[in-house]
Amino acid sequence: MGLRTPLFSEHERLGARIVPFGGWDMPLHYGSQIEEHHAVRRAAGMFDVSHMRPVDIEGPDALPFLRHLLANDAAKLTAPGKALYACMLNPQGGVVDDLILYFRGPERYRAVVNAGTAEKDIAWMQARAEGRQLSIQSRDDLAMIAVQGPDARTRVEPLLPDGLRASAMQVGPFFAAEDAHWFVGRTGYTGEDGFEIMLPSADAAALWRALVAADVRPCGLGARDTLRLEAGMNLYGQDMDETVGPLDAGLGWTIAWQPEERDFIGREALTARRDHPDRRDFVGLLLTGRGVLRPHQSVLADGRVVGEVTSGGFSPTLERSIAFARVEPGTPADCAVDIRGKPVSARIVKPPFVRHGRICIEL
Amino acid sequence: MSDAPADLRYTKSHEWIRDNGDGTVTVGITDHAQEALGDIVFVEIPDQGREVDAEEACAVVESVKAASDIYSPLAGEVIEANALLNDSPDAINNSPYDEGWIFRLAPNDMAALSGLLDAAAYQQVVDDET
User: Fold this and answer.
1) CB contact under 8 A, B65 and A222
2) Is residue B68 a part of any domain in this protein?
3) Is it true that domain A280-359 has CATH number 1.10.10.10?
């Protein structure tokens, strides 16, 4: 048996199919993964993401510490509430984890890290914080519910605490608002508008039930995966990991090279990787032939293997199969993927595939 | 609770087999199997005329979750495959024992059919899994 979130009994009551994920027992779906996916694209859906871990980093050295720890530059965060997506690298330029960092005020930050890597991440941070004036606090006392979709914010609005409602409804994309107990980020992992709400575990079931009553559809990990794939968002452990760094995973945009004097972990390795002949392009794939793209299938061009699918599946919005793949630079747009020993034709496209309910690529 | 009709035969790998009474059988996957797979999004059906061995993988059902091989329950010749599944793979989810059939087979030895599981024995297989 795995770990259980404060919402586990809600999932059971709703008839969820429960699967192990990153050490946790989590809902895969509550009946139909495809229907859940469409609910998020067309109206509103919600995910229990309480397995993810908020980590509060506070103190006079918090900013210099984060500027050393992360490949993106925490100094970009000047407006309170602003969020930043960043990779935490090892000295070899591999990814220890990817995270969202929120700026809460001078010397106060909150990182949200992946479930399966949380303990490793916290140990990594603590080891690098030695001798600095700051505290690192794991917030496993908080639950987290992501409400996503075009109608998400209006359905959440009446359910927010009175003192937080107005400020939460005013925050722009990739900003957060908070009161003494709740933290509401206008962030997500679906390519739709919405909120990620962190709140005391004891409050989670009541909010979840109120959201169900407000016609927000409970969605499982299955829909979460197809939504993030359509939205062109990477999954840690699949698209990048401790051996595959951001330059080979389409995350070059998250590396803050300027200012040059900022010394962050992995900088030297990334600098060497930029022009390395082994560096691979990270691309989107649309399957034009019949079948389903899956991780680890080979990408073929000119009759030889030129890359590998890292994430793949069926896109409910496109009703086609899509994927991310790591390929040799210069791979022609018209290529193929080896599916059970047969080459099936595919085309390289630029993610995202879908954003805000709209298809962004040519079919 | 999934449903396993009494008039069909079954395999441990969750195929069902219907005796058509004309020297052919129809093969599909059970209600239990479709439920476990989740939403089905693609089916690779076998070519007509293909000779298959018993327990040979001859079709593939892909759900949102994963790809699963479908095994021929008996040796014989594929005489028809369900072309409806090319456009509507979810027919397997919606109607596993009727519209969602996968292929029709002319077995080399019709008597081998009685060696397959009956509904009660298949139900036991399902119960043992869960």
Assistant:
1) yes
2) yes
3) no
Looking at residue A87, its amino acid is C
| Three-state helix/strand/coil letters over A16-49 | CEEEEECCEEEEEECCCHHHHHHHHHHCCEEEEC
The whole-number pLDDT of residue B2 equals: 72
* CA–CA dist B77, A240 (Å, integer): 46
Closest to A89 measured CA to CA, from A229, A235, A247: A247
User: Is B122 within the bounds of a domain?
Assistant: no
The residue of chain A with its CA nearest to that of B64 is A314
**A152: exposed, middle or buried (Cβ count in 10 Å: 0-12, 13-18, 19+):** buried
CA distance A291 to chain B (A): 6
A27 CA to centre of own chain: 17
Domain that holds residue B100: 10-110
Q: How many domains are contained in chain B? A: 1
What integer pLDDT is reported at residue B129 of this predicted model? 85
The CATH class that applies to domain A8-51+140-230 reads alpha beta
- Going by C-alpha positions, the residue among A318, A317, A322, A327 that lies closest to residue A291 is A322
> Does B2 reside within a domain?
no
Q: What is the CATH number of the domain that holds B33?
A: 2.40.50.100
ipTM of predicted complex: 0.89
Name the average pLDDT for chain B. 96
| Ranges for all domains in chain A classified under CATH 3.30.1360.120 | 8-51+140-230
Residue B97: pLDDT band with limits 50, 70, 90: very high
Contacts of A311 in chain B (CB under 8 A): none
Q: How far is B42 from chain A, CA to nearest CA, in Å? A: 6
- pLDDT for A1 equals 84
* Tokens encoding A31: 């009946």
Q: Taking CB atoms and an 8 Å limit, are B65 and A294 in contact across chains?
A: no
CA distances (Å), A171 to each of A74, A79, A104, B65, in order?
20, 11, 13, 36
